[in-house]
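Obj: model holo form, ligand = heme C.
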Amino acid sequence: MRLLGPPPRVPLTRSAMAGEKLFAQIGCAICHQPTMFTGPNIDPALDRKAVRLFSDLLLHDMGSLGDGIAQGTARPREMKTPPLWGLRARARYLHDGRAATIQEAVRAHDGEGRRARERFTQFGPVQRTFLLDFLNSI
Ligand code: HEC
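Output (holo structure tokens):
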């Protein structure tokens, strides 16, 4: 399991490249951090590797999107940012599968994710398509 990779990224189209910029501009990348690095590891496959996971692996207060469960140090409204790699291979989204589409999942962001969500909902159809094309490529 440790050595299984995520589904490979598909080459970015021009539309997806425009979406990548929007992803950063409206604040998605604050939590869904594009790249992190593994620490030192005796296994060369895991040693200081760039990991393009699109997560900061941190807890955030997600307001109404919280699962209502206090677990360890996580309070009821706090959720850990999930990696977005391989998003196109998933069938349903969010911790309870309540979102049938990527767009629904983004529209459900609340709490610390509210500002980015509001900026997403202000997009016109062209910008929305750019961003969704990007999310379907990573
Ligand atoms: C404050 C941090 C934060 C910001 C900003 C944020 N997200 Fe998220 N995102 C999360 C968390 C936490 C979850 C998990 C919530 C859940 O499972 O209920 C999540 C879940 C998702 C999911 C569903 C992933 C899955 O596997 O089900 C998608 C898609 C997503 N975010 C895209 C975006 C996009 C696009 C933006 C910008 C408009 C954005 N996020 C901004 C924290 C954030």
